[in-house]
Amino acid sequence: MPMLTEPPGKSRLAQTVDVVIGVDTHTDTHTAAAVTTATGALVATVTVSADADGYAELVEFADAHAGLRAWAIEGTGGYGAGLTRHLAQAEELVVELDRPGRPARRGGRKSDPLDAARAAREALSRTRLA
Fold first, then answer.
1. Fewest CB within 10 A of the end CB: N or C in the chain?
2. b (16+ CB within 10 A) / e for 34-59
3. What does pTM read for this prediction?
């Protein structure tokens, strides 16, 4: 029986979708970044409120990027739970990511758009998805 192997340099997710929407979740806002699977390039970012209206805005944001898509969400059991439920009801493909341990940042600053892009790229690099 032949074994299913991955082509070098391409994850299973990258073979399945055209764009990954990475989401950095917080109590009041969620920041999303659209990343192409072909190159890993950041296409666009958006920050929305963490409520039903914001979730609808995120889907509209994703709809603006052609092709099949997946969502890579940090904290699906915490701050991202509502968004995850919303996307599941819409039958979207969601990849769960653990909230990463992040190194201390200069002056305590962080970048939600960069964290969202990192989430998308992390999902693309995985050979197994949650």
1. N
2. bbbbeeeebeebbbbebeeebbebbe
3. 0.83
